[in-house]
DNA sequence: TATAAAACACAAATTAATATCATTACAATT
DNA sequence: AATTGTAATGATATTAATTTGTGTTTTATA
C-alpha cells in the first residue's frame, strides 16, 4: 500500500506535480476499492469521510490528472457516468471487463488476450495500435447457476 | 434503402411499436450517414432539415427505442456524448472501432475478430458472452504518413 | 365516427462535468 | 524572516447532455 503510494508520488514528481494531501486521500480511496469501478461521485463521498473539507472539483481534477499519467483508466460502461480504475502495476494496457447483464457485476481480466488481434489490425488496416478497450456483455458465473436452479 | 426501412418497420411492429413519420425520418438520417457515428444532437439537426417540426426529445426517445431493439448501437468514445450506429444487417455483434488519437477519425471493422477470445473467456471465466465492444486507440493510416513526411 | 392508446412537441428538471475565481499553501529567492 | 510567484484548492456558477412531465395530437381499430 505505502509502497504503491510512493510509486505514484514519484510518477507525479517526475512530471512536476505534487502529491498533495487531497490527492493522496483520493489515491488511498482508489487503492482501498480496487475492484469497485467507482464513479467520481462515489470517490468524492469516500474521500469526504476522511477528509471532509475536500471539494468535488478537486476530486475531478485529481482523477483527470491520474488519468493523464495512466495511473488510472477512465472507463465508461454506457450508464452516463465515468468510472475510474487503478491500472495494475506494470500493466501496459487497459484491462478488460466482463459486465453481467443480469446482476450488473463487473469482473476484470488482466490477461492480454488481444495480441493476435492487434497484429491483424496493424497489418490489415495499417493502424498503429496504442491501446485498446474491450468489454464483454453476458451472463456471469453466478447468474448462470442461479438460472439453472 | 426502402428495403431496410421495411425491415425496421417490421421489427418495430413485432414489439407493437409504430414506425411514425418522425421515427422514419430519424431512421433515414441514420441510413444516409451510416459511416458517421452521429450524436443525438447531430441526428436531430439533420432530421430537422427535412422535418423541421420534430423535437429533440423525440429523437432521443426514438434512438433509445432503436437501441433497445438492437437496430442501433449506442456507443461512447469517452468524449461526453453518446453516438448511434446502425447495426449492420445480420450482424449479431457490435462492430469494432479504430479511433485515431491524432485526428479523431473513427473507422469501423466488421470482421469478427474475437471468436477465439470469446471461447477463452467462456471456458476460463465461465462467462456466457452475449455481446462485446472493442475499441482500439492508435494512429491511423493517414496520420502515420503525415508524420513520416 | 368514436374511443383509447400511443406518440408527439415543448418546457422543465436532472445530472455529470467543467469553468471561474477568490483564497491558500508552498517553494524558491532575496 | 519577509517577499514573491506558481500551483492547488474549495465553493459556486455554468454548461451540456439527456430525461422526464404535461397537455395535445395522431393513429389504429372497433
UniProtKB/TrEMBL annotation, chains A, B:
InterPro entries: FUR, Fur_C, WH-like_DNA-bd_sf, WH_DNA-bd_sf. GO terms for biological process: negative regulation of DNA-templated transcription; regulation of secondary metabolite biosynthetic process. Keywords: DNA-binding, Iron, Metal-binding, Repressor, Transcription, Transcription regulation, Zinc. The keyword Transcription regulation applies. Signal peptide: none annotated. Binds 1 Mn(2+) or Fe(2+) ion per subunit. The keyword Metal-binding applies. GO terms for molecular function: DNA-binding transcription factor activity; transcription cis-regulatory region binding; zinc ion binding. Fe cation binds at residue 132. Its cofactor is Mn(2+); Fe(2+); Zn(2+). CDD domains: Fur_like. SUPFAM superfamilies: Winged helix' DNA-binding domain. Zn(2+) binds at residues 100, 103, 140, 143. Belongs to the Fur family. This is Transcriptional repressor. It comes from Filobacillus milosensis.
Amino acid at each position: 500500500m505505502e509502497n504503491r503510494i510512493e510509486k505514484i508520488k514519484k510518477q507525479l514528481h517526475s512530471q512536476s506535480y505534487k502529491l498533495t494531501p487531497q490527492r493522496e486521500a483520493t489515491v488511498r480511496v482508489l487503492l482501498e476499492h480496487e475492484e469497485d469501478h467507482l464513479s467520481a461521485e462515489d470517490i468524492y463521498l469516500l474521500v469526504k469521510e476522511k477528509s471532509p473539507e475536500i471539494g468535488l472539483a478537486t476530486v475531478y481534477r485529481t482523477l483527470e490528472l491520474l488519468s493523464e499519467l495512466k495511473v488510472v483508466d477512465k472507463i465508461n460502461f454506457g450508464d452516463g457516468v465515468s468510472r475510474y480504475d487503478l491500472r495494475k502495476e506494470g500493466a501496459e494496457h487497459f484491462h478488460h471487463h466482463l459486465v453481467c447483464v443480469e446482476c450488473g457485476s463487473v469482473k476484470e481480466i488482466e490477461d492480454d488476450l488481444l495480441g493476435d488481434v492487434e497484429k491483424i489490425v496493424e497489418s490489415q488496416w495499417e493502424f498503429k495500435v496504442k491501446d485498446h478497450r474491450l468489454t464483454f456483455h453476458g451472463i456471469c458465473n453466478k447468474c448462470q447457476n442461479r438460472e439453472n436452479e
